[in-house]
Amino acid sequence: MSELQLLWDMGLVITAATILAYATKLIRQPHILAYILAGIIIGPLGLKLITNSEVIRTLSELGIAFLLFIVGLELDLRRLRDIGLAATTIAIVKSLLLFGLTIIFLSSFNIVGLDTIGLLYVGTALSFISTMIVVKLLSDKDELDTLHGRIILGILLMEDLIAILSLSVLSTIGDISFSSIGLSMINGLGLFSIAIVISRFVVPTLFRLVSDSHELMFLTALTIFFVFTKLSELVGFPVAIGAFIAGVSIATFPYNLEIVGKVRSLRDFFAIIFFVSLGMEITVGSVNGILLTALALTALVVLIKPVIIMSLTSLFGYRRRVSFLTGISLIQISEFSLIILSQGLIAGHISNEMFSIIALTATISFTLTAYAIKFNSGIYQSLSRYLVMFDKLSGKKGEELEDIPKHLKNHVVVCGCHRMGYNIIKKLQRMGKQYIVIEYNPERTKTLLKEGVPCTYGDLLDVDVLNKLCLDKADVIVSTVVNDDDSMLLIEQAKKVNPKSFVIVTTDTVPKALELYRLGADYVIVPKILSGIYASDVIEEYVKKPDRLKALRDKHIVDLERIQQEETLGKYEMSLLLHIEDKKHGEEYRK
Description:
The chain has 591 residues and is mainly alpha-helical. It folds into 2 domains: 8-390, Na+/H+ antiporter like fold (Up-down Bundle); 401-590, Rossmann fold, CATH 3.40.50.720. The chain is 69% helix and 4% strand. The chain has 26 helices and 6 strands. Strands 3-2-1-4-5-6 form a 6-stranded parallel β-sheet, with helices on both faces. The longest helix has 33 residues, at 178-210. The termini are far apart. Mean pLDDT is 76; it is low at 567-586.
């Protein structure tokens, strides 16, 4: 194959992806669907514009290698200490259960004549979740910092490590013996050890020398990438493992975010190539021969996997909403699945037909995930009343997280008590105002209860929980949760039972704020806007009275020291609460 032909094939891949991406944008569909369809159309199953399996495999492996390099680059292993027992246990138990169920399912129906080794490959492949897909979609919805987002990230971090270990073991499974598996694990640990040593002793020096040159930093990162991919190949591992470890070796570096920013465009480019090549991997002459099997495996993954995750999440005390949003976000198989099966295909343990089945399964599950995450809140509201069983699984853990004062009247309801919300209750305590907090993070709720804060564990979309808060007798209802679905429901419920209540909600953009005002909010907090207003006030004060700058500076230092001690956001956003007792002032603030 000539270099020029490869160039034309790459151009064809990008052109087809671009055209279909425009089409999906017009009909407001996920771009992932466009990329996969582009691969199907230009590949062996469609117009046969690219039929060379070598080209397809090269594009796929290149795309996967760069994608896993960036996954490793954004994976700080120190974060594993903070994700808690829940995420770790869920990742391990879910993988084992799904592996076992897949083996039973495939064995029962003797699908595509898989032997024992083939069953191990496919069972392992279907057990994992796509870090790349989920992180991208949650990031697009600004849900990475939500409670379910943090749980999901914890699960994904553990699964990435489990998948890498599984891939290293499966790469030598053709000669099943304790010695071969032991050698594989030794090689894997050796690569990780080299990465740790380089990360601690070599990388800091290298990047310190080139820190004044963005170009050299970028080239140094790519050099580490290629060094580890070659080391991975030398010990008999797929290059993707080396790419992932290369990313991990740089992940804890102080300039990590800057490197990620430089490499992000490469990630997007190779993500497109990965999805297009995924569509081209479906090489069977007729989809009819594999469609039924692919749909059966998709049903197994899409229906069983979220139920397992929701059940395990509930057992750790999380209520139905958090459990549901966590489970519905993880209904796909992983990019690691295709890497694992690619190795099986090369080793002769997996047939082309089986690979096409899994590729089609991945295509369907990726597409369904895009819709599931995009409409997760709406789906939850539709199914909420059928999910009560998951609240029961949490047992008394949820019921114990509650301390609601009797005879609530003329009180303040605070929804969400992290940072901003914590500062609100401190202000309310100084004002001597009665209040109640609703918080949907059980660990945060436990902390508040220990501090003697009257609160309950629950979420804003649970009408039963809202009824406990006596909204009909509340003076002020304030939500610090940046979720428009939550805010809209809160406004609707509050104004229905108590039209005179003063409702404050929070959002992150001006258009959303205006929409919430139209829906009846009395005030909408937009943190970024308020920060800008505060900065402009400081400048105006300085222009009018330059000698006041030192006094402002000293006062700000005092405020920051207090904020640091209380672990809160700031004082300016909360100054609205000074006007709570005076509705007239509140109305002026709103205008």
